[in-house]
Amino acid sequence: MNATLLYRVASGLFVVFAVSHTFGLLSRNQPSPEVGAVRAAMNSVHWRFMGAEITYGGIYIGFGLLLTADALYATDLFE
Questions:
Q1: How does pLDDT run across 11-64, given as a tens digit for each residue?
Q2: What pTM value is reported for the model?
Q3: Which of 28, 29, 34, 64 is the most buried (most CB within 10 A)?
C-alpha cells in the first residue's frame, strides 16, 4: 500500500463525512421532541448584527456548513 492510495481513501472518507454531515445538519426530521424544542428556541432569539437579522440557529447552521466546506477543502477537490 502506497501513500497515494491511503490519501485517496482518506479523501473519499472526508467526502462521505461532508455529505452525511450536511444532510444531517439540514434535515428537518427531529429525532426527539427535545431536539425540536432546542431548534425552535435557537431560532426564536433574534438580534441585529452588522445590519442583518441573525439567530442562534443561523449561526449553528452556518458553522456546520463551514465545517462541511473545510472537510471538502481537505480532500483537495478544488485544486
A1: 888 889 889 989 988 888 877 889 889 989 999 999 999 999 999 999 999 999
A2: 0.75
A3: 64
71: nearest Cα among 26, 4, 16: 16
Query: Which residue's C-alpha cell is 442583518?
Result: 52
pLDDT, residue 75, reads 79
Rg, the chain, Cα only: 17
Has residue 10 got a pLDDT over 90? Answer: no
pLDDT for 36 equals 86
65-73 contacts at long range (C-beta below 8 A, 24 or more positions apart): 65/22, 65/25, 67/21, 68/18, 68/21, 68/22, 68/25, 71/14, 71/15, 71/17, 71/18, 71/21, 72/14, 72/15, 72/18
